Amino acid sequence: MHCLHARWGVWVSCCTLAAVLAAGCGDDQRPPEDHAPTVADVSVSTPEDVPITVTIDASDEDGDLVALTVTEPSHGALTVSGLAVTYTPEADFSGTEDLTVTATAGGLSATAALEIVVTPVNDPPVAVDDERAAVEDQVQVIPVALLLANDSDPDGDTLAVTAVAEPMGGVVALIDSNVEFTPSPNFIGDATFTYTISDGQATDSATVTLQFGAVNDAPVAVDDAATTAEDTAVAITGATLSANDTDADGQALDVTAVGNAVNGTVTLAAGTVTFTPAADFNGAASFEYTVSDGAATDTGLVTVTVTAVNDPPVAADDARSTAEDTAVAITGASLVANDTDIDGGALSVTAVGNAVNGTVALAAGTVTFTPAADFNGAASFEYTVSDGAATDTGLVTVT
């Protein structure tokens, strides 16, 4: 049986009116009122890139189950499990997320503010590998700004190169605002080194590859020596001259020119170098030669030792006079007084002969010419002058 309550204006089906009255349900009493849940504002913080879980202070005095919903964050992801809200900030974000939490229970809702402050932390810089073309044997000067051009820092911090290390194929140094890489002599191929960048707190490293291309290396001429006798030319093949010369690239070498001869003359013909010492010269002579690898050249010096050989004396004709039928005596020293020897050797008369219109004899260094009996006019004889090794013949005219 249903009863219409006079003041509530509703049908009561749980009891008869008598039962209601017996239970003490007077006209001044009503059924319990349903209340909205309560939820408290909350402010939390977390470091950049670190998720945070917040337990929301929400309840319902009626004992109804409280369900939460949260507005979507602008810079992260959010999950809700019961009264626990987990916020994961997006990478490298720092700042404040202002969210609204809605608590619902028994069909009623309440809202609160959820502030999540993401505090910044330093993000390390990012160094990116570099490559550069280079030329053999040339020092590479790389501005620091060029190395940093492709590097980055998530926080926008200013970057600096703080160190260089681990060189391969040469040596590396950080000098003021440049990195200088000195390749090993004649190195060809990929050389590398590492560099470190810093944003003032954190660092990162990258590798620089320097691709050294080959260039022609000039040959190196090594001085040579030769020997020849006085007044004798010496012939030296180009292959002999270049035999001790070197070329870092292993190229074939040729003698392409000669010149600057000292105490002689030098010529190049058909690959052979001929040095002719000055007449009667002995001692140190020299000339220069040019060796080529087909692209580059170098100059070497050839020292020629010219050994002395005896030069014959030169006898100069003499003249004397005597009376008819009177012998004339001439000392050897007198005869050789006008004779010469380029080597400066001492001269002496060693023989006489071929007398004309008389006779001639040599005794004890004195030459005696005896004219024919009753002869007068032009007579003559020859004498031999010697330097001890070579001789020459002179003519003495006797009047």
Main β-sheet description: 4 strands, mixed
- Provide the gyration radius in Å: 60 Å
> What would you give as the CATH superfamily of the largest domain?
Immunoglobulins
How many DSSP-defined strands?
32
Gross geometry: rod-shaped
DSSP helical segment count: 4
The second-level CATH architecture of the largest domain is Sandwich
Low-confidence region ranges: 1-27
Give the count of structural domains.
Answer: 5
Strand line-up of the largest beta sheet: 4-11-10-7
What's the N-to-C terminus distance? 198 Å
SS-based structural class? mainly beta
CATH first level of the largest domain: Mainly Beta
Strand content: over 45%
CATH topology of the largest domain: Immunoglobulin-like
Helix content: under 10%
Question: How would you describe the overall organization of this protein?
Answer:
This protein is mainly β and 399 residues long. The chain folds into 5 domains: 1-31, no CATH class; 39-119, Immunoglobulin-like, CATH 2.60.40; 131-213, Immunoglobulins (Immunoglobulin-like, Sandwich), CATH 2.60.40.10; 224-307, Immunoglobulin-like, CATH 2.60.40; 318-398, Immunoglobulin-like. 5% of the residues lie in helices and 51% in strands. The chain contains 4 helices and 32 strands. The longest helix is centred in the first third of the chain and has 6 residues, at 17-22. The termini are far apart.
